[in-house]
Amino acid sequence: MAPKDMTFGVALTMESLVDMAREAEALGYDRVSIGEHVMDGRPPRPTLLGIPALAAAAGATRRIRLLTGIVLIPLYHPVLLAKLASTLDYVSGGRLDFGIGLGGQRDTRVEFEVLGVPAEERGRRANESLQLIKRLWTEENVTFEGRFYACKEVTLLPHPLQKPHPPIWVAGREEPAMRRAARYGDGWYPFLYTLRRLQSSIEKIRQFASQEGRDLSGFRWGVLQPIAIAGDKAEALRVAVAHVGRRYATERMRAEDVAQALCITGTPQDCIREVEARLALGVTDIVFQFQGTPQMVWEQMRQAAQHVLPYFRG
């Protein structure tokens, strides 16, 4: 049985983010999310920055929550990032979920190079940024002296509308990210996780929080979930292989194996069973990343709203 506060979201596409956000709200989704890159690869693929993109989505909607999924926190000065995020929370009427991560994997190391940020420092920079950002959101006349950042008597007004601050959702793939979530986060937001890895990450965060003496009541257990909905499972798997499997295949894992391990695929009824498997692990919030052509993405968003969401909402 789904928890009463279970939420479902949609990962927006760059090409139609405003219309898609408006439609997601009309269909009854709870949240929209979008990732970001400054420069992804050489040659780079087209990308947006998350906060200005979600500001556009905020202007087109009234209720739906806005998840930065994710902001690459080491690429920003924390004072500027705190101001950007609090501005988005303010103009949206307090709808921001502040999702953060590191980046720096695969070809994305190039954006660290172009901004002069050493990629090997990204985890320590993120931890220090989170300490400072929380203070800037809740205090005035903040003075801070860290290894990477310093400020003196800084006051950023208005503070975010949400009190004490917008929820911080932490993403990542390794144990330091899980420790970061346990120490600083209000939610966990992994991507490209198998069920086994998802379960392991939840267990580790609970363990790390216990070591910190932290109560995780109210903590959100999210996941950014690639999904392909089609008339039958074979057709859905073909879509997942084409759009996820081939991108993340390795010498040890074929594209089809990757797609089967990381994606939800099949008919709406198949997808319901896959969602139930994630709920059984403790997941409370799922953001669907629909796969396929733009037309297929829109159709799947509607199918999930019509057949999947009502099943969990009674």
Protein model, in words:
The chain is 46% helix and 17% strand. It has an eight-stranded parallel β-barrel, surrounded by seven helices. A two-stranded antiparallel sheet has the order 6-7. It has eleven helices and twelve strands. It is of the alpha/beta class and 314 residues long. The protein has a domain of 132 residues: Alpha-Beta Barrel (TIM Barrel), CATH 3.20.20.30.
Structural class: alpha/beta
Task: Outline the low-pLDDT stretches.
Answer: none
The name CATH uses for the topology of the domain at 35-166 is TIM Barrel
CATH architecture heading of the domain at 35-166 = Alpha-Beta Barrel
Q: CATH H-level name of the domain at 35-166... which superfamily?
A: Luciferase-like domain
Biggest sheet, open or closed, and with what strands and sense?
Answer: 8 strands, parallel, barrel
- Sequence of secondary-structure elements: EHEHEEHEHHEEEHEHEHHEHEH
Classify the beta-strand content into a percent band: 15-25%
- Biggest β-sheet: strands ordered side by side in the sheet: 1-2-3-5-8-9-10-12
Mean pLDDT: 96
Enumerate how many helices there are, as a single number: 11
